[in-house]
Amino acid sequence: MLLVVDIGNTNIVLGVFDKADLAYEFRIKSDPAKTVDEYGATVLSLLSIKMSSDEKILGAIVSSVVPSLTHVILEMISSHLEVKTIVVGPGIKTGVPVKTEDPKSVGSDRIVNAVAAKTLYGVPALVVDFGTATTFDYIGKDGSYEGGAIAPGLALSVSALVENTAKLPQIELEWPKSAVGKTTVTAMQSGAVIGYVGLVDGLIRKIIEEKGEISHIIATGGNGEMMAKHSALITSYDPTLTLHGLRILYEMNVA
């Protein structure tokens, strides 16, 4: 079985694949203060709960946007699972040419999503990944990664608002009944959540204006389901897009 690991700023998402099928999925907090052994104990415990005694991890692939955690997770896999690990980065086969001014600066998670979108959905495609930051990644008609946009994530935006005001409370990120809030909380939900869909659709419209019609506009990430439900332009929601992208990359790079 294959272990795929997506190291993000807020969470580390792990998936276990049996060939092309995602058998198990786990989510743990990204914590640079944790040691190799602490992560090892957590991951081994989660795997033991789900996996049967005759199931075994035979390989791994890691994508990371947190350099301080990359080495820790790689060492954890090496010492506790004892398998060879592929790291998504320069030199890896992707099948997606990167046509940006500085290809090496593009986050590995964005390339993983581009590979998944191209392989599973077709092109042209746009992936909107709702994480700590919200990324918009465009894959052109020729299958190349052409760039995109990066916006502050929904939760991050609300946290910044709360932290920098004296009286505004922390709120649940849920769709309000009305755009005209009757309380401070519902007014904030209107501005943050309904307003964020406006940001998303506005950027998508601008990208379509520049690039032409886009066959597939795919949402993924933590708030992707809610955003996809209320967006006028997102065509599908795929919560495991990144994990499948990692699986595809592993298969491409292991002969």
Summarize the topology:
Elements: E1 2-7, E2 11-18, E3 21-29, H1 36-50, E4 59-64, H2 67-81, E5 85-87, H3 108-120, E6 125-130, E7 133-139, E8 145-152, H4 154-163, H5 184-211, E9 216-221, H6 224-230, E10 236-237, H7 241-253
Parallel strand pairs: 1-4, 4-5, 6-9, 9-10
Antiparallel strand pairs: 1-2, 2-3, 6-7, 7-8
What does this structure look like?
- By secondary structure, the protein is of the alpha/beta class.
- The chain is 40% helix and 24% strand.
- The chain has 7 helices and 10 strands.
- The strands form 2 sheets. A 5-stranded mixed sheet has the order 3-2-1-4-5, sandwiched between helices. The chain has a 5-stranded mixed sheet with strand order 8-7-6-9-10, sandwiched between helices.
- It starts with a strand and ends with a helix.
Overall mean confidence score, pLDDT? 96
CATH architectural category of the largest domain = 2-Layer Sandwich
Give the low-confidence spans: none
Biggest β-sheet: strands ordered side by side in the sheet: 3-2-1-4-5
Number of domains: 2
- The arrangement of helices and strands along the chain is EEEHEHEHEEEHHEHEH
Q: Would you identify the CATH H-level superfamily of the largest domain? A: ATPase, nucleotide binding domain
Q: What's the total number of strands?
A: 10
**Biggest sheet details:** 5 strands, mixed
At the first level of CATH, what is the class of the largest domain? Answer: Alpha Beta
Instruction: State the helicity in percent bands.
Output: 25-40%
CATH topology of the largest domain: Nucleotidyltransferase, domain 5
Distance between the termini: 16 Å
Q: What is the alpha-carbon Rg in Å?
A: 19 Å
Q: Report the principal-axis shape.
A: globular
